[in-house]
């Protein structure tokens, strides 16, 4: 019978073969989940080693990094024949915003304010806003129940918008009838988000069953478990507009899914850190990790 570590590594290889998984997307997860809180810079060879459990070849990792660098996500530092990667300044802003959405549920209190962005028909801007929790309230009008003027301006600067995009903060008298309508759920993609959470619960049910043994994982197996969990959690959380409780449907699955993910993450993150510290220049921040998913 295969050991738990062997089963985890086999699961990681299957994970890398999934049709919805790419080396590019996993690299983004590795940076956000591991590299940024551990110092922010990593050697190419170490990134290749971190991607190995998922079956990604050296060439595939290099190609994916090159494309991400060309898209202004990463910058490189050459030291002799070796390369070190870190996020660009704009990418650090994006990753910080994603960190808050992925690892931290919205606070219970909400002041009722919304941020409205008039996209003027820009599909690229609308897509970028969608990934930040915005819904399409009307043609050309994206909205989020939060005060996000500064983050929208940062997004516009990063996207090099060539025209003025109107942004406003608004209060609505009573959204209860609209929030309970099918149109509201469609505007914020609630069905898709709920499906993501259900998939997360189903995919990691077996790890929940092995919760007591997960602390036995070491090295690449522990790191693979943490990265897979973080990756699928990231997709679920970024699909979720993270609406205030008063605007979410009854029995919204976010709380149960994040609670399950939190237990697993807090179990596999510590043993994965021992392996991470073996890479030159990476010093994990225990306090930073302790504040995630609690």
Q: Count up the helices.
A: 14
Question: What's the domain count?
Answer: 2
Per CATH, the superfamily of the largest domain is Winged helix-like DNA-binding domain superfamily/Winged helix DNA-binding domain
| Strand composition percent | 5-15%
Overall pLDDT confidence: 91
Write down the CATH class of the largest domain. Answer: Mainly Alpha
Q: What fold name goes in the CATH topology slot of the largest domain?
A: Arc Repressor Mutant, subunit A
Q: Roughly how many Å apart are the termini?
A: 35 Å
* CATH architectural type of the largest domain: Orthogonal Bundle
The stretches of 5 or more residues where confidence is low (pLDDT under 50) are: none
Descriptive account of the structure:
The protein has 294 residues and is an alpha+beta fold. The strands form 2 sheets. The chain has a 4-stranded antiparallel beta sheet. The protein has helices at 4-17, 23-35, 44-51, 58-70, 89-103, 123-130, 149-158, 176-179, 182-187, 190-203, 205-209, 219-239, 254-276, 286-290; strands spanning 41-43, 74-79, 82-87, 113-118, 135-138, 141-144, 167-171. The chain is 54% helix and 12% strand. It has 2 domains: 4-91 and 190-290, Arc Repressor Mutant, subunit A; 113-171. Helix 10 runs antiparallel to helix 12 (219-239). Strand 2 and strand 3 form a beta hairpin. The protein is built from 14 helices and 7 strands. The mean pLDDT is 91.
